Amino acid sequence: MTSLKDHTTAGSGRVVISVDAMGGDRGPATVVAGIADSAAKNPELDFILHGPEPELAKLVAKKGIQDRVQIRHAENVVNMTDKPSQVMRNGKGTSMWSTLESVRNGEAKVAVSCGNTGALMALSMIRLRKLPGVDRPAIAILWPSRNPQGFNVMLDVGADIRADAQDLLQYALMGASYARNALDLPRPRVGLLNVGTEEHKGRAELHEAWKLIDARKDDGMYDFVGFVEGGDIPGKACDVIVTDGFTGNIALKTGEGTASLIGDLLKEAFAYSPLSRIASLLALTSLKRLKKRIDPRRVNGGVFLGLNGTVVKSHGAADATGIAAAVKLAYELARSGFGDRLAARVASAAELAQDTPNQKD
Amino acid sequence: MTSLKDHTTAGSGRVVISVDAMGGDRGPATVVAGIADSAAKNPELDFILHGPEPELAKLVAKKGIQDRVQIRHAENVVNMTDKPSQVMRNGKGTSMWSTLESVRNGEAKVAVSCGNTGALMALSMIRLRKLPGVDRPAIAILWPSRNPQGFNVMLDVGADIRADAQDLLQYALMGASYARNALDLPRPRVGLLNVGTEEHKGRAELHEAWKLIDARKDDGMYDFVGFVEGGDIPGKACDVIVTDGFTGNIALKTGEGTASLIGDLLKEAFAYSPLSRIASLLALTSLKRLKKRIDPRRVNGGVFLGLNGTVVKSHGAADATGIAAAVKLAYELARSGFGDRLAARVASAAELAQDTPNQKD
């Protein structure tokens, strides 16, 4: 195996992603298949892969990507049922810990894991630490939408079940920064999720957050559209939807579940009669286009925001296509220097007291 | 116009529904078109219709349903932007107030309105009053699902943004009762919405509610499957999803928004090329079947539970098909004697202290 450090230190334009081979529902072969796809598509991409060396070496050799992958041996695996508190105490020696270590020591720009979300967030917090000025890191995802950019950003979708008004302001700042970098929107429109758009609706902390987010729109470089509703998550009223992790997680899973039910009913509808089976053959290209647009695997990857380093959480059930999508997102964020920009943005927010407008990021 | 009172007191098997003609986005002509559809389909159905008499009389005559509809004049209308507190003070003389009055005085079994939800709930609480033992009434809806019955019940979807553990227990009891009557499930399976199915996940009040709901499953005549996630709302893990009104409202609107986005993308996909347009013609029957299955208009109608009387809240934007669906739901609930059964169920729950198992409803 080549030393990837040479690549990174040489400033050759290569991008190194640290990938956890373990902890996903489909095992390391799927992860290796995913990174092999990514490696083929992005010639400047290299990987540090974490997990049991003998097994990973075989899988990597089978895909013929030995020169793009450096393997870091890790004996243990964080399971889906492990509690975050246990993993924080006993996580050393796991592939997840090792994956974050490569970001912590600067060898890789971004980490990717499809392991246990709670454990990954807990380990990320103790190993990478929170950015100064951030109380609760958040998980942001891209959601298919009616907007021209095709996706909206929503956060938090489950890093923390609580969020006070200050946390929601930080989510607005971080989400806007993410939308600028991932969706190329110079001045994203931020909406605060509530049960109605009228100002008197909803919980007290939302009214407080409304004022904070509105007051910071200029130095945060976003527009604030005020309260938005669940229907606006896939809509075009705003580009960034801000909410607490309890509500965001349930909205995300409700949307996924609804899309999946409709997909299955559509399949049933087309299998119903000989005529409809012919129709489905004729419509195959159209349906594939639709599926590509709303396929959750294509937008696989929640991003942990608010840490010293970027972590992409892939869906636990991701297949090779899903893993490749998560790696692609990691690659784009690494290449754009997103991590540094976000840190600068949050730092400037922490200097709120001085009220100095700051236009970078 | 005939006196509908004769019908009800005569015990002729006729069912009288009180309908608010005003307050919907599309105006009274749509409401009258909807009840005309319902009247044609259900010969034993009669209506008391509330709103400005001269206008309504014309619309009713145009549809030729004068002998099925009694008009109650009401000068004023509750608007979508009116605050519930204002309506509670000044609502007398509105069509909404009058609509509830017919249920309050026993002339009609169930009320239907497509007006402002907050105002309708506020007026329902002061005019019909809460059932003894109920602290927070809830709005329950039917959600297309993978279960054999085709729908799941979810509550609360927005009556109250707060719910403590005791409220969630009442929602479980009321939701199970509704599922028994509306979906014909003798022993519905209840799930408590959370961000994960593991017992340690989520907020403290959910852990408390878990214990309360589990303890009451036998006298509540339901099974308790424990915590469920957003993906289970359209799923088959349970039949009744219990949550607070903030989370439920956002989940509902997220699901509706996602379904609507997919529907539009599907139309686009089929309009894309001549071949796909031919395909869509061939697939028309299949697609219509699918649309009927997931069309929100077909399951239009949130039901207010926990009051002395049943109120069906139709979507504000409902067209005639949507109004007819809400009336159909009202009709079925009136005919099954649901209101009395629910009252008995909640009363038996209020006697929890005695721990007397009670098997009726």
Automatic annotation (TrEMBL), chains A, B:
Enzyme kind, highest EC tier: transferase
GO molecular function terms noted in the UniProt entry: phosphate:acyl-[acyl carrier protein] acyltransferase activity
Subcellular location: Cytoplasm
Keyword match Acyltransferase: yes
Annotated GO CC locations: cytoplasm
Alphabetically ordered keywords of this record: Acyltransferase, Cytoplasm, Lipid biosynthesis, Lipid metabolism, Phospholipid biosynthesis, Phospholipid metabolism, Transferase
Major localization listed first in the record, in broad terms: cytoplasm
Keyword Protein biosynthesis: no
Catalytic activity: a fatty acyl-[ACP] + phosphate = an acyl phosphate + holo-[ACP]
Protein's GO biological process: fatty acid biosynthetic process; phospholipid biosynthetic process
EC number: 2.3.1.274
Pathway membership, UniProt: Lipid metabolism; phospholipid metabolism
A Pfam family per the record: FA_synthesis
The family this protein is said to belong to: Belongs to the PlsX family.
HAMAP family from the UniProt entry: PlsX
Binding partners and assembly: Homodimer. Probably interacts with PlsY.
Function recorded in the entry: Catalyzes the reversible formation of acyl-phosphate (acyl-PO(4)) from acyl-[acyl-carrier-protein] (acyl-ACP). This enzyme utilizes acyl-ACP as fatty acyl donor, but not acyl-CoA.
NCBIfam families associated with the record: plsX
PANTHER family the record matches: FATTY ACID/PHOSPHOLIPID SYNTHESIS PROTEIN PLSX, PHOSPHATE ACYLTRANSFERASE
Protein name: Phosphate acyltransferase
Source taxonomy: Bacteria, Pseudomonadati, Pseudomonadota, Alphaproteobacteria, Rhodobacterales
Gene: plsX
